[in-house]
Inverse folding.
């Protein structure tokens, strides 16, 4: 079995952030298209994606919700579907929903 | 092309200009159009990588597909499965070319940006689907371990000291000693005053959410933990290769998240201090903070406090660890601001707690020191930049400062630098005594039986879908299969858009592959052998050029030969006894001569290597009762990997697992 590449080779913080946002966007797009969308599972997975990038305050960071908005756009949802996901994934909080809107545009 | 260009030129209103001017306009626009068309059709490259054979991981070599900075490849993982991985190229190169000492060869294939996007999307989708499926397998196995521990706890009675069951929790070791028991938390430091940073945060929590918020939250979490029940009912349609299904938030994840939250709330409510040794207080001018840097850290502290307040009211399921780590960082930030010197969480792991120590060899120490210093200053410069610091910048600085401090100390004291644990964020795991949910032993037992049933079904299905097979399903065949899927998808989409008549699917995929990559490789022919797949790609795809990234040892030999007599270098570095580069370690089998850079003398060196392997195997038989067969195993392995050398083939190259290359320049 080949071992996993080490992370001691430094990755710039910009690249890490970009990678994180791309992963959140791609995961969101797949998640909302799946028939068993479950918000709790979604949040658990986001936590794991963030942990991979050593990012702990993801839930309180605007960039997470901008990336979620980009994922919703990538999934080509209808307007009502988009609104429903925006509310549930944004915890009905105005700042999170605004960030989702920002990523969706 | 000319006609199109001419039409476009007219459309731009050039027709009304004089003949000479029109002629120059025509030539200029034609050149622009030719250029822009080439850019649109084939302005980019993907790379097909072949990594030559190695002893530990792949005797037949390995292949991967590189797109930009990302490398997709399929890895053999236990128990006998093949799984897609995506790695950053720098890390991939470090692992394969440096640590595993294997040469990477790559074909640059000319493709359009659209093809890159198509392939990336396809590989990424496979990655997302497999991540969920493998994650579920892992959590079921974790559930099994937890339920077994809970069953034993249930049988012996909670609170009994003998055989107390524990679980490791991330972040717990920042504040609690190993083996902490929730019911004894107040005895952790009974006479110690409350930690000022934590007390300030607790004060803000009370002001924002009410006086009894922390107590209420603690009781709710404990109640919720006690009420936890696992649910096992695997959906019949869970397994489809092309279907994304999110993995459930498992029982063991819920349980450990609840325990971590309880611990974090204890710290916050009691204002507990950090444990001894958690903070790193490096001395020296390099770690001094000027006014602007102190101001920046102060702003970040404010941001972090607000984020921690938000965490307590959020729906984030695993907020215990972020709260523990955030509180520890708050303490470090307060001390940095007060002292005017950087104080950070200590990332060094205690000696003997890591399986694979990461050591910078003495000969690389000064280069590593210079690189580490430069990276530290680059990370620190963010504190005086225009942008406010955030967690990305702070954790980058935390890591860079830890690495630089350790390298600095090693150089000053003339000792080996140990970078164990500095490759990740400060997780500080420690164990905590389990709390038994309100389940009887019979209920736990019944859940174990249901889980075993699900787990067996799950493992069988995973095996059906992802079993590694040397010929039919390996790292090479899967790359071509996924590329074929992407081509098929693109062809279907084009056909439906253009209303074309239906064609058999493989015909469409082949035509699309010829258009996008210059040719078609099905993965069903000789290309299942990694080495031959590299040749097949060269013959079929639109390869612009090829390049080689030599293995670590070969690169270093070239460097030595530029400075010393090449004959002496060859002689000294030819064997494990006199080599200055290679240090013997338990990961490599027994051998004497390196044969990767020899061709004609390879069989002769192979005879010596075979003899060394057999001698160690014999010694292993004699010492079997004392060393558990380790000598025997390494001797047999050494002999086996020497056999191909007798026939001019090389697999073993010697590995450099502890080699650390921090890179040449700061990011």
């Amino acid at each position: 079995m080949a071992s996993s590449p080490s992370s001691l080779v430094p990755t710039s913080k910009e690249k890490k952030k970009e990678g994180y946002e791309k992963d959140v966007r791609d995961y969101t797009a797949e998640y909302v298209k799946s028939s068993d969308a479950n918000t709790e599972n979604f949040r658990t997975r986001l936590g794991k994606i963030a942990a991979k990038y050593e990012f702990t305050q993801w839930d309180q960071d605007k960039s997470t919700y901008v990336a979620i908005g980009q994922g919703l756009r990538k999934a080509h949802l209808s307007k009502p579907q988009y609104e429903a996901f925006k509310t549930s994934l944004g915890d009905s909080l105005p700042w999170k929903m605004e960030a989702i809107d920002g990523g969706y545009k | 092309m000319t006609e199109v260009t001419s039409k476009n030129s007219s459309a731009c209103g050039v027709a009304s200009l004089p003949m000479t001017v029109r002629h120059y306009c025509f030539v200029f626009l034609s050149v622009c159009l030719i250029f822009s068309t080439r850019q649109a059709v084939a302005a980019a490259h993907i790379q097909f990588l072949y990594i030559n054979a190695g002893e530990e991981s792949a005797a037949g070599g390995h292949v991967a597909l590189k797109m930009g900075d990302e490398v997709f490849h399929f890895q053999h993982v236990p128990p006998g499965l093949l799984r897609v991985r995506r790695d950053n190229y720098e890390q991939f190169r470090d692992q394969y070319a440096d640590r595993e000492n294997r040469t990477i060869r790559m074909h640059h294939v000319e493709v359009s940006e659209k093809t890159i996007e198509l392939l990336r999307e396809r590989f990424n989708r496979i990655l997302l689907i497999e991540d969920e499926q493998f994650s579920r397998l892992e959590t079921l196995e974790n559930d099994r371990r937890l339920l077994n521990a809970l069953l034993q706890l249930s049988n012996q009675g909670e609170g009994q000291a003998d055989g107390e069951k524990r679980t490791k929790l991330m972040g717990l070791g920042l504040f609690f000693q190993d083996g902490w028991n929730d019911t004894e938390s107040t005895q952790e430091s009974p006479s110690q005053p409350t930690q000022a940073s934590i007390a300030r945060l607790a004060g803000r929590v009370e002001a924002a959410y009410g006086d009894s918020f922390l107590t209420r939250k603690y009781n709710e979490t404990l109640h919720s933990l006690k009420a936890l029940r696992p649910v096992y009912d695997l959906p019949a349609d869970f397994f489809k290769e092309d279907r994304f299904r999110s993995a459930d938030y498992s029982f063991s994840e819920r349980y450990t998240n609840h325990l971590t939250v309880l611990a974090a709330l204890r710290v916050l409510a009691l204002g507990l201090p950090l444990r001894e040794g958690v903070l790193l207080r490096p001395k020296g001018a390099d770690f001094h903070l000027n006014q602007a840097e102190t101001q920046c850290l102060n702003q970040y502290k404010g941001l972090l406090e607000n984020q921690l307040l938000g965490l307590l009211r959020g729906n984030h399921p695993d907020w215990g660890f972020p709260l523990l780590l955030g509180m520890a960082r708050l303490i470090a930030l307060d001390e940095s601001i007060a002292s005017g010197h950087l104080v950070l969480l200590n990332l060094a792991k205690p000696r003997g707690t890591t399986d694979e120590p990461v050591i910078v060899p003495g000969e690389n120490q000064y280069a590593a020191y210079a690189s580490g210093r430069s990276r530290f200053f680059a990370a620190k410069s963010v504190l005086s930049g225009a942008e406010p610091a955030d967690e990305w910048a702070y954790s980058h600085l935390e890591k860079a400062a830890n690495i630089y401090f350790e390298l600095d100390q090693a150089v000053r004291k003339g000792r080996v630098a140990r970078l164990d644990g500095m490759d990740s964020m400060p997780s500080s795991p420690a164990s905590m005594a389990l709390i038994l949910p309100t389940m009887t032993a019979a209920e736990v037992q019944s859940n174990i039986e249901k889980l075993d049933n699900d787990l067996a079904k799950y493992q069988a299905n995973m095996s059906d879908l992802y079993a590694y097979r040397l010929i039919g399903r390996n790292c090479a065949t899967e790359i071509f299969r996924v590329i074929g899927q992407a081509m098929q998808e693109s062809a279907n989409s084009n056909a439906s858009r253009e209303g074309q008549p239906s064609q058999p699917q493989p015909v469409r995929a082949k035509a699309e592959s010829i258009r996008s990559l210059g040719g078609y490789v099905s993965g069903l022919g000789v290309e299942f052998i990694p080495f031959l797949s590299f040749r097949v790609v060269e013959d079929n795809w639109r390869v612009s050029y090829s390049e080689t990234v030599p293995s670590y040892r070969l690169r270093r030999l070239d460097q030595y030969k530029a400075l010393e007599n090449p004959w002496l270098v060859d002689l000294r570095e030819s064997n494990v006894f006199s080599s200055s580069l290679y240090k013997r370690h338990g990961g490599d089998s027994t051998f004497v001569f390196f044969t990767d850079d020899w061709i004609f003398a390879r069989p002769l060196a192979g005879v010596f290597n075979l003899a060394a392997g057999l001698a160690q195997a014999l010694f292993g038989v004699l010492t079997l009762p004392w060393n558990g067969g380790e000598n025997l195993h390494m001797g047999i392995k050494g002999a086996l990997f020497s056999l191909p050398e007798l026939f001019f083939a090389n697999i073993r190259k010697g590995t450099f697992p502890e080699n650390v290359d921090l890179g040449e320049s700061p990011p």
User: Anything to note?
Assistant: Residues 39 and 89 of chain A are 7 Å apart (CA to CA). Confidence is low (pLDDT under 50) at residues 1-9 of chain A.
